[in-house]
Amino acid sequence: MTEQPIVPEFNEDETYRLRLFVTGASPNSTRAILNLKEICEQYLKDNYEMEIIDIHQQPLIAQEEQIIALPLLIKKGPGAERRLIGDMSNREKVLKGLGIS
Questions:
Q1: Domain count of the chain?
Q2: pLDDT per residue over 8-56, tens digit each?
Q3: 3 Cβ partners below 8 Å, 6+ apart?
Q4: Residue ranges of the alpha helices (H) in 1-101?
Q5: Is 2 within a domain?
Q6: Residues with Cβ < 8 Å from 56, sequence gap 6 or more?
Q7: Is cis: bond before 27, omega within 30 of 0?
Q8: Residues 50-77: pLDDT tens digits?
Q9: Residue 90's domain spans which residues?
Q10: Distance from chain centroid for Cα 96
Q11: 45 belongs to a structural domain
């Protein structure tokens, strides 16, 4: 018997606005990008906008957002702003942080 993954319900009218802050092409940054893209494609389909920001190329945005650790995901909406630190490999934590679990 194979377990099917539980797909959380979300409002299809809401677009998730995500900002992922990374530092160059470091292994952690690369993992975070790949993991987050996979999660978004599986759970959010076409209901998300993801902006990937390299703090070396755009330091003013990083300063404006008061970045303290990398990689860092900021969920701008829907709902309250949430911040998640790490390579986004803990799927349960990411889903909970996005408010879709």
A1: 1
A2: 445 567 899 999 999 999 999 999 999 999 999 999 999 999 999 999 9
A3: none
A4: 27-39, 59-64, 91-98
A5: no
A6: 23, 24
A7: no
A8: 999 999 999 999 999 999 899 999 999 9
A9: 16-98
A10: 11
A11: yes
